[in-house]
Amino acid sequence: MGVSVFPVQSEGEAAMGDDQPGEAIVSPGPACPLGLAWGERLQRRSQAIAALQLDQPRSIPAWDEAAQVAARFLGVPLAVVTVANGSAEQIHAAVGLSSLGVGNPLSQHRQLPLSSGLGVYILDSEQPLVVPDTAENPVLAQSELVGTYGIRAYCGVPLMTAQGICLGALAVMDVRPRRFSGQDLGFLAMAARWGMSEYERQSATARAVLAPPGPAGPVGLETIVDRVRLNLLTQLTQELRSPLTTVLGMSTMLSREIYGPLTPKQREYTDIVHRSSQTLMTLVDELIDLNPTEAERAELVPTAVDIEALGQQVVAALTPLAEKHVQTLTLTVEPGETHWILDQRVVKQILYHLMVSMMQGAGDNSTLRVHACRRGQGLALGLWLSNPWLGEGLPTKVVEILHASAAPFAPGKIPRPLLGLLLSQHLAQRHGGQIKVQGSGDSNRLEVLLPMLDAAATRPDASRDAEAGATR
């Protein structure tokens, strides 16, 4: 493709102003970090574009927001998000195209021949392209973007899918020369990652909502409504990541004092915002991972599960909630009984919802204890509360609900925070197990009994997946 340009000004140079062009480092030939031929990369890109329904130029809200934030933060008049589809660079989000002239072709047609723009160099190298002054580069000066529309400064980053496929670019432009700092480039890359991940999540949610019923046959209207409601709740949870990603990214930059030193009070507030954002992001990721519609849709998947690692992952996710109520979570595992063949997703949901329900029914300064051990050939999970004033045992409401669950009753009689008990009971039964109250009086505890699954169908490397998730 000819040339790759990667000039980035230093922080010292940034203080000199934006009117002087920086020097460019020019590479004479194309780069291919993936080691794939251009034709193969083109095929992978075409398949990804079709799967994400990006065949035609259309407005995408997440990308519109990414372009707007990038233009506003970097103080540039133009920003675009493009996808390279065939021989054209299609514009799916744009800010400031009208400033290039009323009725200009780029604004009307929302696309540009791939060979006429600068995004082709990003596709070729899959690296950022930063050009302080296009007029000083004889190759770039011949492009239509420069010759026809007068673009003098360009800063673009790859638009990468979760599978590492470069679809296009997020770029900011100016009609006068200007330099871009390393912080500018870093912010642009963060905006591109956020915009792409949000669109992929929204696309996945839309496919789930529109998916036809499974092979079990027709279902009732009430069941369909419940499925739609759950999918919508999942989508809303996923969309929480949008503002959280922005807040987390900005608080990170502020805490690193990229834009100047902070006073002690500003540092205190910034650290609070940063920690809170991290906690919220962890909880949102857990909620998405614990999507009940996914568990209902899939068959049981035998997995080599490290119950201690999985339990610690759930404890870590719920610790912020426990701290709000001055509660403590503890997990113990019987020595030598760490690895089991189970459905990892189902067991994680059981633990998560049971612990949340128990915490909701507990008072302040309570300790929720979880103990894993062997019962015959299966895994037993014991849960109970201890309180310095109330002793050990289960909340009365929890015991009543579990005893009444065998008989039909109106769902409105169950407090909303304790609905997780019923979901956990249903999931345990799907796994071939049960949940029961062990003991009586003030020393009772809740016990989950789960049989091991067929080891012959165990998914390879799943144990390492669980351990990696636990350290997330």
How would you characterize this protein structure?
- The protein has 472 residues and is of the alpha+beta class.
- The chain has 3 domains: 199 residues, GAF domain (Beta-Lactamase, 2-Layer Sandwich), CATH 3.30.450.40; 74 residues; 171 residues, Heat Shock Protein 90.
- The protein is 44% helix and 20% strand.
- It contains 16 helices and 16 strands.
- The protein has a 6-stranded antiparallel sheet with strand order 5-4-3-8-7-6, sandwiched between helices.
- Strand 7 and strand 8 form a beta hairpin.
- The longest helix has 29 residues.
- The protein is elongated.
- The N terminus and C terminus are likely disordered.
How is the secondary structure organized here?
Layout: E1 4-5, H1 11-14, E2 26-27, H2 38-51, H3 61-74, E3 78-85, E4 88-95, H4 105-109, E5 111-113, H5 119-125, E6 129-131, H6 144-147, E7 153-160, E8 166-174, H7 182-210, H8 221-239, H9 241-255, H10 264-289, H11 292-297, E9 302-306, H12 307-324, E10 328-333, E11 339-343, H13 344-361, E12 367-375, E13 378-387, E14 391-393, H14 396-404, H15 419-430, E15 434-438, E16 445-451, H16 462-470
Parallel strand pairs: 10-12
Antiparallel strand pairs: 1-2, 3-4, 3-8, 4-5, 6-7, 7-8, 9-11, 12-13, 13-14, 13-16, 15-16
Can you summarize this structure?
This protein is α+β, with helices and mostly antiparallel strands. The longest helix has 29 residues.
